[in-house]
Amino acid sequence: MTWIVTGGAGYIGSHVVRALQRSGRRVAVVDDLSTGRESRVPPDVPFLRADLSEAPIADWLREVGATGVVHVAGRKSPTESMVDPLAYWRHNVTATTRVLEGMRAAGVARIVFSSSCSVYGTPTAAADEGSPLAPESPYGHSKVAAERAIEQCGEAHGFGWVSLRYFNVAGSADPTLGDLGVHNLVPLALQAVAAGRAPVIHGDDYPTPDGTCLRDYVHVEDLAEAHVAAVRALEEAHPGRVFNVGTGRPHSVREVLDVVADVTGSGLVPVVGPRRAGDPAAVHAVVDRIRDELGWRPSRDLRDMVASAWAATV
């Protein structure tokens, strides 16, 4: 039995692949390599290069003996989605429906989905899984739509499913698996420091204690282990469920940049720029459900995230 990881050549997906391998499971990867690197796919892992919004995958699922799909592939920037919403509907919604079609045709009935805290918009308190869904960007809306499609396939076709609502992911399990993205605070700040530039704070007039956005950061290795817990639950016939994946502790942009300065030894003073469209003021998680039902807990803190990300930058 093999678990397919879509987007398995990317930042999060490559960590999920290795976590599943460590758990003793066979893995295969589908990725279009638009942001991933084939070099991140282990040599013993079957690999298919495909755009999931276009390519039928049922035959390949049968070929590798798929027992389930961990669907990580997709676009992930709220800000980018504000200027190119159609790309987000194509890569996050159309691609998900094509994956579900392929699963149904191949008789594969388990899926773990990479969702996002962006489904909550700007909650008035720490978000639990029952908090209202109020996305503020096409990215957030695309994740809500994909969640609904998966849930409805569960009802109609008997799919087992878990949706993991990631909060802000950072860090690296290995210097070769760093975040190459251009949208997330930690890699952007570290790339700036490495180039001798001051990190940028996008807005310091939010209604938060220090005026900068508050986020819940989770180490990518902890996140990968949450996927293994979700896979295990589906193998044990756990009912369809949504889980937050975070630490439950918010950090402001200024706090994060203070840790960046400490880890890197940089004397660079952050500069303040304009707000970015689609950025809510404050989002952090309640993570009781995943702890109680799947036994998952984060074990790494913000300094671990920044230090491991820095090792993957320099």
Q: What is the CATH third-level topology name of the largest domain?
A: Rossmann fold
How do the SSEs run, as a string of H and E? EHEEHEHHEHEEHEEHEEHEEHH
Rg for CA atoms: 19 Å
User: In the residues, how many domains can be counted?
Assistant: 2
Could you explain how this protein is built, in words?
The chain has 314 residues and is α/β, with parallel strands linked by helices. It folds into two domains: 2-169 and 217-245, NAD(P)-binding Rossmann-like Domain (Rossmann fold); 171-215 and 248-311, UDP-galactose 4-epimerase, domain 1. Helices cover 39% and strands 19% of the residues. It contains ten helices and 13 strands. It has helices at 11-22, 58-63, 78-83, 85-106, 138-157, 185-194, 220-235, 253-264, 288-294, 302-311; strands spanning 2-6, 26-31, 47-49, 66-71, 110-116, 160-166, 168-170, 200-202, 214-219, 241-245, 250-252, 271-273, 282-283. It has a seven-stranded parallel beta sheet, sandwiched between helices. Helix 5 links the parallel strand 5 (110-116) and strand 6 (160-166). Helix 1 (11-22) crosses helix 7 and helix 8 (253-264) packs across helix 10 (302-311). It starts with a strand and ends with a helix. The model has no long low-confidence stretch (mean pLDDT 95).
